[in-house]
Amino acid sequence: MDDDVNRHRKRTRRTAPVHLVHSDEDRVGRGKQHSQQLTRDQLATVYKWADGVSTPTPPGHWDAIAAPYISAASYSEVRSARVYALLNMALHDAGVACWDTKYFYFNPRPSQLDPEIKTQTGLPNFPSYVSGHSDFSAAAADVLSYLFPDGATNFIALKQEAALSRLYGGIHYRSDIEVGIAQGQRIGGTPSASPSPTEPTEGCLMIPEGYRGVSH
Question: CA-CA distance, 190 to 193, in Å (whole number)?
């Protein structure tokens, strides 16, 4: 893919004004030091999407989301494999693009700039910008919405929930989330060049001709 997909170059490395603005937002959302202003629902969202060590991580979470839709459609093994192939190609490419962006900008986490920000989940040991949860979830939601249009509303809601969970957790700026979603959507949108998802040829995965993914 082009560099503007692979890396969002609208920001310079360690853009201090953006960090300061979003640190203020994080401090309001989480409260200073030991105070806590999250609702119970928001905290539950943080834990639901924590996807940390010893879990399937966000890609595995989205595979689990896809499973009941595949089952309800009574897909054959070939059709099921096609769904997982398209979904996980997009998840893989989202990961490549996201981590390339992270280590290009190398931006610190909110609590690394402001120790008064209390995190509600584990602090990842890699840079902040852009959000992996947002990138993975946007790509996955786009692919699954294409394959299962009737579930699009749910996939979009889950995408937003996953992305915001990282803001609630105090480990991302809103800019990380917004740009991560935009990046993931561009990656996840590539399967739209394929034939109708309801008419795959049995015995063939029918990977879309237009699917190129991220250049490695």
Answer: 6
In a domain, 103, yes or no: yes
Amino acid making up residue 190 = T
Does 213 reside within a domain?
no
Buried/exposed code over 27-64 (b: 16+ C-beta within 10 A; e: otherwise) = bebbbeeeeeebeeebbebbeebbbeeeeebbbebbbe
d(CA 167, CA 49): 12
Range of the domain at 96: 3-193
Go through the chain and tell me how many residues it has.
216
CATH number at residue 133: 1.10.606.20
Total structural domains within the chain: 1
Tell me if 181 sits within 8 A of 167, measured CB to CB. no
pLDDT digits (tens, 9 = 90+) for 35-64: 258 899 999 999 999 988 888 999 999 999
Tell me if 211 is assigned to some domain.
no
Q: 148 vs 56, 90, 144, 170, CA distance in Å?
A: 23, 16, 6, 33
Whether 126 is in a domain gets the answer yes
**Angle, alpha carbons 10-112-34 (nearest 5°):** 125
Q: Render pLDDT for 60-100 as a digit per residue (tens, 0 to 9).
A: 999 999 999 999 999 999 999 999 999 999 999 999 999 99
